[in-house]
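Aim 2 progress update. The chain analyzed this quarter is reproduced below.
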Amino acid sequence: MSTTKATDSMIVGLTSSKLTGNLPALSGANLTNLTAGNLTGTLAALNGSNLTSLPAGNLTGTVADARISTLTASKLSGALPAIDGSNLTNLPPGFTKNSSDPAITTNPSGGVGTVWVNTTSGEAFVCTDATSNENVWTNVGGGTGDVQPVPFYQGTNYGYIAGGGYPNNNIIDRNSFTSDGNSSDWADLSGSYNYLTGTSSTTNGYACGNESANIMQKFPFASQTNASEIGDMASNTYGAAGCSSTTHGYYCGDGSPTTNVIQKVSFSTDGNSQDVANMTASFGFGTGSQSQTYGYIAGGHSPYRNGIEKFQFATDGDATDVADLTNTVTQCGGNSSINYGYASGGYTPTLQNVINKYSFTSDSNATDVGDIIAAKRQCSGTDSSTHGYLSGGYISSGSNVVEKFSFTTDGNSTDVGDMTSTRNHPAGCQY
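Predicted structure tokens:
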């Protein structure tokens, strides 16, 4: 019996039960509508370039790193694992955490913009001036108090009160800024004078002008040495307002006769003063204060004034009227914090006890922020970094009281000591 093989054309139907063994390699190019339920086992490597509309639910397993070419941010969710960030750029400056406040000598590696957080108080500071060992840290939290270098016109050690009357004397008193107490006799002026005006460099105190002569004197802060005469004022200066820049002392106005002249004296070279500018009017007995860039003159007479004028140190330009005190007053004691000037006490022509405070950062009128311990005039102002000090003055006679008020908290002054003698209108300096 002969066997004849069936050809493809002879097969019209074939049930699966008739198939046994292994099928040879087949081309699936023409397969359509193949359901997953009819597939079993493991497929060999397939070319999927023609696969379309494959649902995500039918994909399992992992994708190798080499197969990922791009990845958009919207496809990322959840927590990232630990990542090496050494190549990250354009990140904001980090926060430095410490149990104490930064100091002016805290030199941030990140420069301006570095944030410092005090973990004890919760206060935060931002470095706004990154000058080596003279950094400024501005308090940006809910607390108060910036960290910054002491301005050149404030002292950290002592205040000095030179001369004054009545009667006129030559004593230079010194009082401590670090502890309250009585003053001590530190040195002497070259003569006994009243109505002096004081200015301060970083190394010397200056006591210039008076009611009877035009002399200028200076004395050193570091050694207990008497004052020496160094030159003459451009005109006889009696009751001028004093202001200090980093390089010069300025003497503004004159009480008798009145004048509008602003004179300056060099701190680096001894010699006569120079007439460099004018106030807005002729008057005397104004009160001096200073910011780091401007000198200020508040009040004065004749007649009695309430104006606040300022002039720029850098240009030797004339003064301009920028604001008003709360009262029309003369012969106040003057003080300077970092951001404010103060004019305290005075005469209207009745004695006053008001502490006037005006801004260095905006040309705005003064406000009444407290009272000195007694209504008086002709007291001398000196400044530490935290307090304004007022020494001496005239009530019904001369006073020997040293009082102070806070620069950080508005309020009344307190009696903290006595000078070695009663006196009014002495020169005030600080170191």
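Residues 1 and 7 are 19 Å apart (CA to CA). The two ends are 134 Å apart (CA to CA). These observations will guide the mutagenesis experiments scheduled for the next reporting period.
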